[in-house]
């Protein structure tokens, strides 16, 4: 059996609540435990599962926004502050879903900007700031993650263009691919990339490699990555090869 096929079957078994132990997966797929262990290492490197003692688990879907918002706040704020410094007064800014984009919105109060978003928490944060022209994209509401998705959101984005897009992610693979845990968000993110003049990925250190089963884009679609720690060597090399500027909070490297 080809490795790629084994990887698909392992992920399918884990997502269905099936065997998670190395021994069980070995018996099910008819390969040695050593082969399964190598497969799990590769899948973890790709951000598709997490190894645990004796086996592996897959984290399904997004955590609710309120839970994620309480995690790594200082790191997100440092990234948000650096990202906000990139934006010039009078420019247009497209903000993705997610908690780091929300922390960036908090940095924009008092600025003369146009902010476009599908992030309901960003909208709530900036709704009373009269200096900001605020554009809320239409769409179906994902209540738990406070976002708008669907063809209406994508149609809105086709009619817009922004100087900056600040993009969130569930994880970045060593090849530089930007991933997401929820398939329904991916078409909106891709539409945002098409609508943005400059695409900036906001990714704290936990996103390298992070998790995600759905590819949003490759490194060639990014202009800048802002993070709080240098990415691993493989990811950094992939980003640099694609011409992406890597900004580590407190230092800059290209």
UniProtKB/TrEMBL annotation:
Location of the HTH deoR-type domain: 3-58
The UniProt record lists the keyword Cell membrane: no
The entry's keywords: DNA-binding, Transcription, Transcription regulation
Gene3D superfamilies: 3.40.50.1360, Winged helix-like DNA-binding domain superfamily/Winged helix DNA-binding domain (1.10.10.10)
CDD domains per UniProt: HTH_ARSR
InterPro entries named among the record's database cross-references: ArsR-like_HTH (IPR011991), Carb_Metab_HTH_regulators (IPR050313), DeoR-like_C (IPR014036), DeoR_HTH (IPR001034), NagB/RpiA_transferase-like (IPR037171), Tscrpt_reg_HTH_DeoR_CS (IPR018356), Tscrpt_reg_HTH_GntR (IPR000524), WH-like_DNA-bd_sf (IPR036388)
Signal peptide range in chain numbering: none
Molecular function GO labels: DNA binding
Entries under PROSITE patterns matching the protein: HTH_DEOR_1, HTH_DEOR_2
Designated name of the protein: DeoR/GlpR family DNA-binding transcription regulator
Species of the source: Streptomyces dubilierae
């Amino acid at each position: 059996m080809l490795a790629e096929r084994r990887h698909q079957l392992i992920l399918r078994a884990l997502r269905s609540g099936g065997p998670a132990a190395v021994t069980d997966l070995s018996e099910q797929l008819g390969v040695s435990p050593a082969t399964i262990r190598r497969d799990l290492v590769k899948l973890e490197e790709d951000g598709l599962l997490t190894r645990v003692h004796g086996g592996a688990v897959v984290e399904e879907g997004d955590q609710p926004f309120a839970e994620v918002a309480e995690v790594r706040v200082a790191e997100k704020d440092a990234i948000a502050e650096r990202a906000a410094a990139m934006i010039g007064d009078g420019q247009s800014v497209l903000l993705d879903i997610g908690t780091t984009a929300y922390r960036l919105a908090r940095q924009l109060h008092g600025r003369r900007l146009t902010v476009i978003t599908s992030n309901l928490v960003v909208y709530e944060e900036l709704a009373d700031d009269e200096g900001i022209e605020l554009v809320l994209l239409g769409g179906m509401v994902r209540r738990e993650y406070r976002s708008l998705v669907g063809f209406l959101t994508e149609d809105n984005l086709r009619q817009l263009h922004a100087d900056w897009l600040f993009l969130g992610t569930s994880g970045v693979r060593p090849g530089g691919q930007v991933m997401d845990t929820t398939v329904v968000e991916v078409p909106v993110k891709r539409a945002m990339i098409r609508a943005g003049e400059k695409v900036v990925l906001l990714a704290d250190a936990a996103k390298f490699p992070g998790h995600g089963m759905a590819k949003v884009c490759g490194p060639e679609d990014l202009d800048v990555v802002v993070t709080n720690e240098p990415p691993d060597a493989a990811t950094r090399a992939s980003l640099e090869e694609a011409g992406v500027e890597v900004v580590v909070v407190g230092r800059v490297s290209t």
